[in-house]
Specification:
Radius of gyration of chain A: 17 Å
Largest interface: A-C, 37 and 32 residues
Number of strands of chain A: 0
Number of helices of chain A: 8
Helix content of chain A: over 70%
Strand content of chain A: under 5%
Number of domains of chain A: 1
Distance between the termini of chain A: 44 Å
Oligomer: homotrimer
Order of helices and strands of chain A: HHHHHHHH
C-alpha cells in the first residue's frame, strides 16, 4: 500500500511536469492531459513493452491512469500557482526519479534480464516519460542536452540496485540504497548546478 | 466483409492525410508512402503492441499494408487534386475516426482490459496514427494543440462502447452508437468550429 | 561467430552516425551515448517489439549494448577525427544497412509473417534506428526527405531475401544476394547522387 502510494505520487509529480510543459506550449485541455499522462506513464510503458509485460499494469489498474489525469487537471486549473512551485516540483521529481528507476530495475531483473540490460531498463523507466513528453512538443529531450544532470544519477541508482540483487543483498535494503543514490545525486546536481561533460570542440559554442 | 471494407477505407483515408502532409513538407516518394502507412496503421499498431496482440493483424494480412500504400500512391500522383478535396477528406476522416475508436475499444475490451483503459486504448487507436504522422514531420501533434476538437469525440465514442459492453448492450448495437457519437461529434465540431478549452492565462497569446 | 561480429560491427557503425549527430547538436555525453544506442539498436528493437520477440535479444546479450556504447565513447572523444571520415562511415553504413535488412527479413519470415510484411519489417530493421535518431533531435528523418536514396535499396534487399526464401533458395545464398542488393544499390546511390522522385509541384520549391 505504501509502495503503491509512493508510485502514484511519482506518476503525479511527473504528470505535473508534463502538464506544465503543455501549458507553456499553449496546448489545450487535451494537450495538457495527454502530456501529463505520457510523462507520468511513458517510462513504465516503454519498459513493459520491451520486457513483454503486456498489457502493462498501468493499463490494468485504473489508479495508474487516474494519477496523471489528476495531475493534468490540477495543472490545467491552477497552472500559475503550480508554476511558482517549480523548485518544489523539482525536488519531488528527484524523489520520483529514484522510485521509478528502482522499481524499473527490480522489475527488469525479475523478468530475467542480465544486470546491464536491467540497469538500462531501470533508467529508461525513470527518464522515458520525459523523453516522450519532449518529443511530443518537438524539442530535443532535456536529458540529452547539456544542462542538468538527470540520466547519470538514474543509471547509477538502477546500477546499484541490480548489483545489489546480483550479489544477494536483501531487496528491501537495496531498493532504498538505489533510490537514495539516484534521488540524492539528482538533488545535489540541482543544488550545485552539476552538468555532464560536453564533447571538446562543441563546448565553445554552447546551446 | 463489410467490416473489413470499412476498416480498409478508414485506413485509406487516414493514409491520404499522411500523404498530403508529406507532400506539403516536400518529402519524396518514400516520405509520402511512409507517412501514409504510419498514419493509416500507427494507431492500431500502438494498441496491438500495448495489449500484446503481436504480430499485429495489420502485419499478417497484406491488405492492411496495401490500403495505406495505395493512399500514398494516389496522393503522390494526384496531390493537387487530392488537396482540393480536403473538406471531403475531413468528412471521411471523421467516419474513419468513429470506426477506429470503436474497433479499438472492442478489441481492448475483449483483451480483458478494464473499462477505463479500454476506452483509452480505443481513443489511441483513433488518434495514434495522426500523432505518429505529426511527430515524424517534427510538428506538435494537432490533437494536442488548440484548434479542432478531435480527441474528445474519440474518447467519448470509445467510452460509450465500453460502457455499453459493460452493462450488456449487444455489441452490434453499441458499436453503431459509439461510432455515431465519435463521428457525429467530430463532424459537428468541424462544421461549427468547436474547440477544446485552453488554460486561462495562455488564452491571451494563442498559438 | 562471424555473423555476430558482422552484426556488432553494423551496430557500431550505425552508433557512430548517431553519436556524430549528437555532437553536432551540442548534446553532452548522455546525449551522445543515448543517440548512439538508439541509432544502433532502434531498428532491431522496433522489429522485435512488432513481432513479439521480447525481451529482445539486444537486451539479453550485453555485447549488443556494448557495441553502440563503444561507438558513442569513440565519437565523443575523437569526434573531429571521426567526422573527417564521414565518407568512409557512409560506406560502412551501406554495408550495415545490407546486414540489418537481411537479418530483419529472415527473422520476420521465421516468425511466420507473410512475404510483404516480412520485407517491410526487414526494411524497418535497417532504417528504424536512423528514424529514432532523427526524431530525438527534432529533425524530419533523412530517409523521408528528398536527398539520398536509402529506404528503397533497403526494401529491395529485404524483398529479394523474402522472395528467395518463399521460392526455396537456400538461406545461406539468398542472404548474400539480398545484402548485396541493398548495400550495392545504396553505394551506387551514394556515388552517383541518385535520389527518389518528388511529387510534381513540390519539386519547384525544394527543401
Amino acid at each position: 500500500m505504501l509502495l503503491l502510494t509512493l508510485d502514484l505520487l511519482g506518476i503525479f509529480v511527473f504528470g505535473v511536469s508534463g502538464g506544465l510543459l503543455a501549458v507553456r506550449n499553449q496546448l489545450d485541455i487535451v494537450g495538457v492531459l495527454v502530456l501529463a499522462t505520457a510523462t507520468g506513464l511513458g517510462g513504465g510503458l516503454l519498459r513493459d513493452v520491451l520486457i513483454g509485460a503486456v498489457p502493462p499494469p498501468a493499463l490494468a489498474d485504473w489508479r495508474y491512469l487516474a494519477a496523471p489525469v489528476a495531475a493534468g487537471v490540477v495543472t490545467f486549473v491552477w497552472h500559475p500557482a503550480v508554476g511558482r512551485f517549480e523548485r518544489v516540483i523539482n525536488v519531488f521529481d528527484a524523489f520520483g526519479l529514484g522510485m521509478f528507476v528502482v522499481a524499473g530495475a527490480v522489475k527488469a531483473h525479475e523478468a530475467g534480464l542480465g544486470p546491464v540490460p536491467a540497469a538500462v531498463l531501470g533508467s529508461i523507466t525513470g527518464v522515458g516519460g520525459g523523453v516522450v513528453r519532449d518529443v511530443l512538443v518537438g524539442r530535443i529531450p532535456t536529458i540529452l542536452r547539456h544542462g542538468e544532470l538527470y540520466a547519470i544519477p538514474a543509471l547509477a541508482g538502477a546500477g546499484v540496485v541490480v548489483l545489489g540483487l546480483e550479489v544477494g543483498v536483501a531487496q528491501v535494503v537495496i531498493v532504498f540504497v538505489g533510490a537514495a543514490v539516484a534521488s540524492g545525486w539528482r538533488l545535489l546536481a540541482l543544488t550545485r548546478g552539476w552538468t555532464a561533460p560536453l564533447p571538446r570542440a562543441a563546448g565553445t559554442s554552447g546551446s
